[in-house]
Amino acid sequence: MDAESFKNEFLPYHRKLYCVAYRLLENAADAEDLVQEAYLKLWDKREGLTVISNPEAFSVTLVKNMCFDLLRSGKYILSKQTVELTAVQDVLLIDNIEERDKVQQVKDIIARLPEQQQQIVSLRDVKGCSYEEIEQVTGLNATNVRVLLSRARKKIREEFKKWNNYESRGN
């Protein structure tokens, strides 16, 4: 495959690949770097790509797998030690002080969960990953993922309820 064919075949999916990577990594720079690496991998294997019937699906799968590999790696997890709940709402954009406090409280509760539960809540409830994708990232089976997610959600509800009851008594 020559350079022109490669450009015509794979570059139109750049935006979609970036969106997939960004959704999973929640970091623009990391997503852009990962997509760039994916294009390098595709370019290195360009001779074997002529047999691929759906280049878009192949590229998306490649990017997802690269994201999962990165998320599984210890060094990436250590660099992202705090759980970012950008999908909940950006605390700075919330006008109501009470709502801002509630969002912050949920973030604090999640930050105190065991690491695996934090990761699963982030992947499922924030990033919208499927259970299969979470299995790939964590190496856990579906039953373990569901149990840990259930326990994490229960703990969040209980702690949030305790906090709200405490706040109500204070008023």
Descriptive overview:
It is a single chain. It is built from nine helices and no strands. It folds into two domains: 3-79, Rna Polymerase Sigma Factor, Chain: A (Orthogonal Bundle), CATH 1.10.1740; 91-170, Orthogonal Bundle (Arc Repressor Mutant, subunit A), CATH 1.10.10.10. It is an all-alpha fold. α2 (14-25) packs across α3 (28-44), α3 packs across α4 and α7 crosses α9 (142-170).
Category from helices, strands and their pairing:
mainly alpha
Q: What is the distance, rounded to the nearest whole angstrom, between the alpha carbons of the first and last residues?
A: 71 Å
Q: What CATH architecture of the largest domain would you give?
A: Orthogonal Bundle
Count the DSSP helices.
9
Helix fraction? over 70%
Q: What is the CATH topology assignment of the largest domain? A: Arc Repressor Mutant, subunit A
Mean pLDDT: 80
- H/E element sequence: HHHHHHHHH
What general outline do the C-alpha atoms trace?
elongated
CATH class of the largest domain: Mainly Alpha
Poorly predicted tracts of residues: 81-92
- The beta-strand count equals 0
The main sheet comes to: none
Q: Care to give the gist of this entry?
A:
This protein has 171 residues and is mostly helical. Helix content is 73%, strand content 0%.
